[in-house]
Design brief:
Order of helices and strands: HEEEEEEEEE
Number of helices: 1
Largest sheet: 8 strands, antiparallel, barrel
Number of strands: 9
Distance between the termini: 28 Å
Helix content: under 10%
Length: 163
């Protein structure tokens, strides 16, 4: 396991008692569109602070993310994330932010350690404090580096819990 992943998980767990918020676990497939021919199972952990901004049907705030896959690729980042409620049960979610990326031994070379991650998903609330969703995310350095920029997509099934 990568040092960056251990650090991100440790910081997220350490922050949990100090701040209310939400944790999200996701499992899915990295390189879901086979752009780089290195598809692998992926696991994502996110921690969202309580919303910093709220409207009638929407919330937005800050979060952290740690993701690793079967090729030993690791991404650790921060993001601004939001959710828009489509009634009492359904919602759409999105996130965008920068982070550190380390391609594993058999991993996906994205041309830079600095990557942006964007996510869009749709889900449903289940009970008082839980939700499930399906999301697709894209990581890319946005041509801010001279290296190749193939980008990579991850599709995941997510479970979240507010506390």
């Amino acid at each position: 396991m990568s040092k960056a992943l251990v650090l991100a998980a440790g910081l997220s767990v350490a922050m949990t008692p100090a701040f209310a918020g939400e944790i999200i676990f996701g499992v899915g497939v990295d390189d879901a569109l086979s752009r780089t021919n290195s598809s692998a199972g992926a696991f994502t952990f996110e921690y969202h602070l309580d919303p910093a901004w709220e409207g009638r049907n929407w919330t937005a705030g800050w979060g952290t993310v740690a993701q690793f896959d079967g090729d030993n690729d690791v991404f650790v980042g921060v993001n601004i994330q939001g959710r828009y409620d489509l009634g009492e049960r359904w919602f759409v979610e999105g996130a965008f932010g920068p982070g550190y990326y380390d391609a594993g031994s058999n991993g996906t070379e994205l041309g830079s350690d600095f990557q942006f991650r964007s996510l869009i998903g749709v889900g449903a609330y289940v009970g008082e404090a839980s939700q499930i969703s399906i999301a697709i995310e894209h990581k890319s350095h946005g041509n801010l580096s001279d290296g190749p920029n193939p980008g990579v997509e991850t599709v995941s099934l997510r479970y979240g819990r507010r506390f």
